[in-house]
Fold:
Amino acid sequence: MALSDTLSTLAERAKVAEDHASQAAAQGREQLQATVEQARKAAQDQAAKLQESARGAETRTSQWWADMQRNWHDHTAKVSSDIQARKQEHDAARAARVADRAEADAAAAIAIALTAIEEAEYTVLDARLARMEADTKSSAR
Structure:
């Protein structure tokens, strides 16, 4: 898949996430719980794919990127663990604090995703430029 196509897939996936977040307000508790579980599974599956690709791509990617992939896997595992721990809390005031923290975590995750999109755009364009330069040098021989 071309890198620009991958960016299109990213944009489409971001739209799906936006739609799910908007629809959550109209869902009942059980339906929302099921949606949350689906989102958790999808996030875990994607993190596993990222971890697997990190293992196979370490020789082709920079050490920074391989470290970033491993760190992301660790982060998603902690988020999942934190979410499970929050479900154990019952007190109303504590539940409100948990909800506030969950909303702050969601805002932080969105900020990270936006940063990742900017980085993805930059690296896709830089990769295209690198390929163009390599092709120019190859044809100049």
About this structure: The radius of gyration is 19 Å.
